[in-house]
Structures
1.
Amino acid sequence: MSTDHPPRQTLKSAALAAAARGWRVFPLRPGTTTPAVQNWQQKATSDTDKINAAWDHGPYNVGLAPCPSGLLVLDLVPANGELPPLRHRSPGIQDGADILADLTDKEGARFPVETFSVLTPGRGLHLYFTHPHGRCPQASLGADSPLGWHVAIRSADSFVPLPVSTTAEGTYEIAHDGPVRAWPDYLARKLPAAASSRTCPGRAATQQEALPLG
């Protein structure tokens, strides 16, 4: 399936808007979620000159490095016909959003709908949070997530595409354009102590190296 890329200026504007929030971004290859730079963890930047120079090369999708941006992204993955593990099988449980809703209900908390969130082309949902106490949990994907089946944690050593990025499946779109909320305590308690022990670079740190594309 072919991909109609958003205009280069639209993608660059999205990257600059993220940088204005103090978020670190880097280019993804057009129409994909594949980094267009090596060592993207170190190359991600909020420097507007570097962003302008990078996106002047072409219609690159926009990748976000959550950890150095002071963020943690909860990735609620759709099931796409896959059955949940036996321990999660109960009426109404079909995907990652249902798992989080069930966990939230058991904790007597509210589902975190007020935070900035992004709808993925696969109809999943990315919920953005500030990471707890300046500590950056290790990324946990798939069955390894301490929060449950299809509730992935994207933070250290992981990235997410930002809205207006487009793939063959569709476009990442803002679901709720609100402020980024703090990581809820009831979810922080579910993380192993070791997963919360990593310190990531602060937002004030600068990137001295340019973003070579290749």
2.
Amino acid sequence: MIAWRYPLPTTCLLGGVSYRIYNALIVIQMMQIIVLSLAECTSDGFFFCITMHLCGQLELLRNRFAEIRRGTDDKVHNDNSLRPLIIRHQKLITLARNIEDSFNINILIRFILISVVIAMSGKLFIGLRVITLFRQREYNEVMKMLFFIQFYTLQCFLFTHAGDTLHSQSASIITSIYNTTWYELSPTIVKDLMLIMIRLKIPLRLSAGKFFFLTRSTMTDILKSTMTYISFLQVTMED
């Protein structure tokens, strides 16, 4: 009996089929891989684009706060300059909450899958498999494993970069307000700015299932833990 090799690990289920059925299954699995890859990239791209759009809007809001100047009529100046900025900031906060509520469970599942897939593949660990295949000179399988590791690492970077950028952009508005000529404004406007700064002390953040926030340190922690585990496996195999 010929042991067919499939793009997806289904040899144990579809190993005894004829050559014609094998070719049909290859085509079906290739279509499945393309559809799943497009769905994966589309979902990640949508999250990244909408989050970076929010970051861009926060940067524009920060620039508008930096342009606050003293007006001839403090009451009119307060209504004409601060009210639109406050309303705009409230809308951006609502958008950030909607993104958080829509994606936090999905991001948590992605991070769990990233950690598991990097560490495990079927019955063998990826680190152990890469080392074993490299020793057996199975370079095609090694490249496949490294491709998956690189893909999930890039996916992890997109999530953490978007979350970290959102946090830094929302926190930078406080500095922008403080750097204005607030000492030349009326006490009423200064009090309003103080209330705005108090609200901005709670920066906008994205989390993974409400368990931890998305920052670049999250990505580095995952990579350090993974590399440490792979190094441990390599030392264990050498012994």
3.
Amino acid sequence: MFGPLMPVSKNRRKNKTKNTKKPAIKVLQKKKLAADVSQDIPDRKFMEKMMAQITNAAFAPDPFAGDGLLEAPDHQDPLRQAQDMMYDAWEADTKRERIALARQALKISDLCADAYLLLAEEEAKDIIQARKYYEQAVDAGRQALGDALFEDAEGDFWLVLETRPFMRAKAALAQTLWDLGERQEAAEHVKHMLQLNPGDNQGMRTILKSWLFTLNDFAGVEELLVEYEEDSLAEWCYSKAFLMFRQSGAKSSGAIRVLKHAVETNHFVPDLLLGTKRMPKSLPPHYSIGSKEEAIIYVDQNRENWSATKGALQWLAENR
């Protein structure tokens, strides 16, 4: 799912005291993107492959440069070779080719998290087997990164290119655990992801918010809303209204006021939640603020909570 770039948390954690010896990592420069995404976005893994190739070229040894200040990466590193193979695997035409390349990548390095991730998505026969692959992916990613990086890069974790296979695996494992009913553990995985990367490039905070509502963890929802209080998306506006309804009841003037503001932010949401407009069979690949596509994505993630809460839909219909 692609949408506007997720705003960075206002309450960013201050940098901790760093180790004097830094791990050899590549950090990508932050870039501002337009909030309104109105055209197709290239596949993120393809973009990541391009960034890896550009970075490798930038650090490539120059026989005429002599000793430089920057240490060139080890292009013979097995994990680097395995990861490059996974970029090829994602672009392979057939499922058989993709699985074969993933297996080959694991022979080169058993710490290639993306290889386990692909096997979970392409080869697993059921959700139980997929879970095992996802767990292997998370473990491999953690070992590949090393403990020091988790401390040194906390706060800007996604900007370190090598962390992304681990973060992809962690997101997939969290969703699988949720689907299996291990919901508290699933939520803890996402909380850890947001601790590592509060900028939330993967959009995990919206998923966590919905899960916390399901778990009746209203304090957790409120903390999340405060952490990202500058977020003006319909997702956040309707969630604030829903939280106030759950906490204060249908007659709360404050809840009604917040709901009306949410409707002003995106007027497509009520009809989709109430069922007066049909949801599409598939989710849109991206959206812009205030659009029907944004409403579809919000309703897809949150209608179960609205429907399960007594009086919530009636309150919405009466006060929209």
4.
Amino acid sequence: MYMARHVHAQSVHDEVLPTNSDCELFIGGFWGQPVNTATSFAFVVVGAIILARSAGSRRVLIFGLLAIGTGVGSVISHGPAPAWGEIVHDAPLVGILAFVAVDAISDLSKRELTWVWWVIPTVLALAVSEIGEPARIAAQTSITVLAIGASLLRFVKRPATRRTILTAGLLLGAGALIGTLSRSGMPLCNPDSLLQGHAIWHVMAAAAIWRLTPVVGTRGAIAALPLRRQARD
């Protein structure tokens, strides 16, 4: 789910320039990049729905909170964009990736790994990111690869999860492709447009999180059953 670094916009002779990599013009104020900021709330909405339908599952509750955190961090980063916006943007995003990886590993290993197993890698990735941009990309890419790899292995080993994981993966992959092709300097970038590829990435990534939710916290045979049915089982 990692997307390229968000860098503050600069104003030259009263002309507002687009932020590095995100394409959309930065207009200042709370909304900053209006379309990217508005679509960041998709994560918040999805997270709130996940919480409402968690059926008492602690892992699903955490997943929902991380989704909300991802949205809040994205709003801050694309909107007012304070100096500390980058860490607020990255922390829940890296956290949700690490959480997905650990949840899949717990299922496959038949051993419940505690929160330490996803929190510590998240903290380490964020710490390494402070070294510089190459280190940031390497650290966050490593967490992303781990999450994808663990989910693919779960896909293979847990047939009941396949449709859910496949759909979530397709949403995420398509969104990432559109977002990449819409970065500054890329063919689909139009800084003045209301149709922003990075914004589409937000919506599709949020949809992927929602789609993956039925798998979160499930183990073995009951994986991918509806949340309320899992609670009864």
